[in-house]
Design a protein that fits this description.
Blueprint (H helix, E strand, L loop, with lengths): L1 E6 L12 H14 L3 E5 L10 H11 L6 E4 L2 H4 L14 H11 L4 E5 L2 E5 L10 H14 L4 E5 L21 H14 L2 E6 L6 E5 L2 E5 L23 E7 L2 E7 L20 H5 L15
Parallel strand pairs: 1-2, 2-3, 5-6, 6-7, 7-9
Antiparallel strand pairs: 1-10, 4-5, 8-9, 10-11
Helix pairs in contact: 2-4, 5-6
The chain binds fe (ii) ion (2 copies).
One fe (ii) ion binds next to helix 3.
Length: 292
């Protein structure tokens, strides 16, 4: 049996270390569990698109992982997939290059036992960037195998059904989603798709594939829209056990992990996240000042 620990949405930053405690808890949990592999499914950094050092710092921290791992980008690392005229923090070649310079790659394929594990950069899917087509060609090759396949990416493929209309930045847009699901169906061997981004855990089944949403290990974002998605809103991580008998997925909630809720952050609308993380860090040098 393969034990894959999926950790998501760590949101790390050198200048704004707001979730560092929960990452330390995460590293201890990894040491205790000793999974065969850890897959980090994006939003590794707090505000990577505007602050490349957050991406660098996220890599420095994730490199402390005590077992083999892969890390994939999310919108807080390389930017948002364009949607509905929204123009802030979009994915760009430059932001992708910053991520690849730090982490070495933005996708992976590896074989473990009877399984092939495939990691995608979901921020390319629907981006229109040239790397989007490259990745689809690469994916077709990666799926061409006799193994069972587990796929990981940051955005979920869909929120309720594979036929959902476009639903803003919460999931893949409908047309690129259709192409991706067609590629999975054509390959016929994809059993699991693990995603992040929504900071809540949920299990969905579509066309024989388990779609598992991972919680964030950093914080939860309850709110009018996210409360309607039907997932479990608690910090933690997913443990996937892959075997001949099938897939078992558990949402683990380490006892010491703080269940940080953005509703408590600030009075800024809608929850203060961007308003807080974009402020210059006000604490500065914590060393006591000694008079000369
Ligand atoms: Fe996130
Ligand atoms: Fe995200």
């Amino acid at each position: 049996m393969l034990r894959i620990l999926q950790v998501s949405d760590t949101h790390l930053s050198r200048t704004h270390p707001l979730f560092q405690f929960n990452f330390e808890v995460t590293l201890r949990e990894i040491e205790t569990l000793q999974p065969d592999l850890v897959v980090y499914t994006g939003d590794l950094a707090l505000n990577g698109p505007d602050n490349p050092d957050d991406v660098q710092f996220a890599h420095e921290q994730i490199a402390r992982t005590s077992c083999p791992y892969f890390a994939l980008p999310g919108n807080h690392d390389v930017g948002l997939v364009p949607f509905g005229g929204h123009s802030e923090q979009l994915v760009t070649e430059e932001r992708l290059a910053t991520f690849v310079a730090a982490f070495g790659n933005d996708r992976f394929v590896t074989d473990m036992g009877d399984w092939r594990l495939v990691g995608l950069n979901s921020q390319l899917i629907g981006s229109g960037l040239s790397a989007e087509e490259d990745q689809m060609t690469w994916l077709t090759d990666a799926l061409a195998c006799d193994s069972k396949v587990a796929v990981f990416m940051h955005y979920p493929a869909f929120l309720q059904t594979a036929e959902d209309e476009d639903v803003s930045h919460y999931a893949l847009s409908s047309e690129p989603r259709r192409q991706l699901l067609e590629a999975f169906a054509a390959a016929g061997n994809v059993q699991l798709v693990g995603s992040g981004h929504l900071h809540q855990s949920r299990s969905l089944l579509h066309a024989g594939i388990c779609f598992e949403w991972a919680p964030s290990s950093a914080f939860v974002i309850p709110g009018n829209i996210l409360d309607t998605f039907g997932g479990r809103q608690a910090t933690g991580m997913l443990l996937h056990e892959l075997s001949d008998a099938g897939i078992s997925t558990q949402h683990l909630e380490p006892a010491l992990m703080m269940n940080i809720d953005l509703r408590n952050w600030s009075k800024a609308s809608p929850h203060g996240y961007y308003q807080v993380v974009k402020q210059p860090w006000m604490i500065g040098d914590l060393q006591p000042k000694i008079a000369a």
